[in-house]
Design brief:
The complex is a heterodimer of chains A (212) and B (244). Chain A is of the alpha+beta class. Chain A has a single domain, classed as Glutamine Phosphoribosylpyrophosphate, subunit 1, domain 1. Chain A is 38% helix and 33% strand. Chain A is built from 6 helices and 13 strands. In chain A, strands 1, 6, 7, 8, 9 and 10 form a 6-stranded antiparallel beta sheet that branches. Chain A has a 5-stranded antiparallel beta sheet with strand order 11-2-3-12-13, with helices on one face. A two-stranded antiparallel sheet of chain A has the order 4-5. The N and C termini of chain A lie far apart (46 Å). Chain B has one domain: 4-Layer Sandwich (Glutamine Phosphoribosylpyrophosphate, subunit 1, domain 1). In chain B, strand 5 and strand 6 form a beta hairpin. Chain B is globular, with a radius of gyration of 18 Å. Chain B is α+β, with helices and mostly antiparallel strands and 244 residues long. The chains are: A alpha+beta (212), B alpha+beta (244).
Chain lengths: 212, 244
């Protein structure tokens, strides 16, 4: 039995997550739903993790693998900063993550997003350690629906608020049409000066209300 | 202790007791700490302060390249004295232990637990052959749910908890100063001043403005003072009366 088959009855984040680069930063978001087959196992799962002052991780796939990776990455970025006196680059974090995934396969699809000296970037990482940079990216079962919104709405050099609204609109669409996504969303942005800033539930509600 | 030519063979192996029950190699390791730079630590109302003198004796040395005080985790700092290279190994190990605790228990490591772990590690180098003890003493300062902590560790792996103390060549001068001056519930500024005075007491000269470093650990975490802020605090000290 391969790992995919053996995972069918496990807790999975069917999931929609995305990252969007804008002018001066990056927006990152994820839904809240975890499923086991057709059953919604949890309505408030965390899939968006801060893994450093300038770095975030979103996870899709097996919850156990995702949580374990977030703990490991948090420790690695902290030790990196203590040893070297500066934060890890996004490329560095993505490559490190890819190397961890090569050690043994994790059933996950990840985004590593962040800001460093070279500006904002989004890396998508597959379970076998493939790591690809992009200006925007979506993962999980809801990604086809989100890509529809992103292909239509994304512009180079967007402003922060427009990028946050686009992210919310994409997650809202996948929440409506993907059975394994929904139950609200986490949204955050990262800039060089402010670092990782997660929006409060109230702020997210206001943004969603402004779209309607 | 006098360095007699005769440990009579009992100082060759670290694992060999002398007939009167001493481990000479461990005692020699303590000597390397006694030659180390002076480091002072003291508790105040809200946390703990570590003050180190990097002992820079050439204007060609770039002071920033010498590290004597280290952030270990958000809530813990080490100040070291003795062999610097040995200290770095302990610092690295401690940082990893802190992260292991976070991965394993999703919580920061209690300061006492970390002090014991590092001392267990040091101790293992006094009992197994083929290695030598760490020539390093540590001041471990930290704040956690249990309160404010200041530990001193020595090469044998022994540790004690202090209100205020020192390690290195000026240890006794620092301790004497704290013995007669330290009191509970000082403000941070008062404690910084006292730490600097204690350090100066061990030097018998004015503090080197390029060589002093100050770390503060309180409920808002670990931070070091900028060179500018350190010097502002040094300037507040009453000048030494060197004729005394």
């Amino acid at each position: 039995m391969n790992i995919m088959e053996s995972s069918m009855d496990k807790l999975k984040t069917g999931t929609s997550t995305l990252g969007i680069c804008y002018d001066g930063g990056v927006v990152v978001g994820a839904d809240h739903r975890a499923t086991m087959g057709h059953f919604i196992a949890n309505k408030s799962v965390q899939k968006l993790f801060k893994i450093g002052p300038n770095l975030a991780l979103t996870t899709a796939g097996l919850v156990g693998h995702a949580q374990s990776l977030s703990r490991t990455l948090n420790a690695e970025t902290t030790l990196f900063q203590l040893k070297r006196g500066h934060t890890m680059t996004v490329k560095g974090a993505a490559t490190l993550t890819a190397n961890i995934l090569l050690g043994r396969p994790y059933w996950v699809q990840l985004l590593i997003v962040g800001v460093d000296d070279s500006g904002p970037s989004v890396y998508s990482i597959d379970g076998a350690g493939g790591s690809i940079p992009d200006v925007y990216c979506a993962t999980g079962s809801g990604s086809p629906y989100m890509y529809g919104v992103l292909e239509d709405g994304f512009r180079d050099g967007m402003q922060k608020n427009d990028a946050i609204k686009l992210a919310a609109r994409a997650l809202l669409a996948s929440g409506q049409r993907d059975a394994a996504s929904g139950n609200g969303m986490d949204l955050a942005y990262i800039t060089e000066s402010e670092g990782f800033v997660q929006l409060s539930d109230d702020e997210v509600d206001k943004i969603i209300a402004s779209l309607k | 202790m006098k360095m007699q030519p005769s440990g009579r063979g009992y100082d060759h192996g670290i694992t060999t007791f002398s007939p009167d029950g001493r481990l000479f190699q461990v005692e020699y390791a303590r000597e390397s700490v006694k030659r180390g730079t002076t480091t002072a630590g003291l508790k105040f109302r809200d946390g703990v302060i570590l003050v180190v003198d990097k002992r820079i004796n050439s204007r060609l040395i770039i002071p920033d390249s010498i590290e004597k005080v280290f952030k270990i985790d958000n809530h813990i700092g080490f100040a070291t004295s003795g062999l610097v290279a040995d200290a770095r190994q302990l610092v690295q190990r401690a940082r990893v232990e802190c992260q292991i605790n976070r991965i394993t228990y999703a919580d920061s490591v209690p300061v006492t637990t970390l002090a014991k772990k590092i001392c267990d590690f040091k101790q293992s180098f006094t009992q197994y052959g083929g290695s030598r003890p760490f020539g390093t003493a540590l001041l471990i300062g930290g704040v956690d749910d249990e309160g404010i902590h200041l530990f001193e560790t020595d090469p044998s792996g022994a540790y004690q908890s202090y209100h205020a103390g020192g390690i290195g060549s000026g240890r006794s001068a620092v301790s004497d100063f704290f013995e007669s001056n330290w009191k509970e519930n000082m403000t941070m500024n008062a404690a910084i001043k006292m730490g600097l005075e204690a350090l100066r007491n061990s030097l018998d000269s004015e503090l080197n403005r390029e060589a002093v470093e100050i770390a503060i650990i309180d409920s808002s975490g670990y931070r070091t003072l900028s060179r500018e802020d350190v010097n502002k605090n040094i300037d507040k000290l009453k000048p030494l009366d060197l004729d005394e």
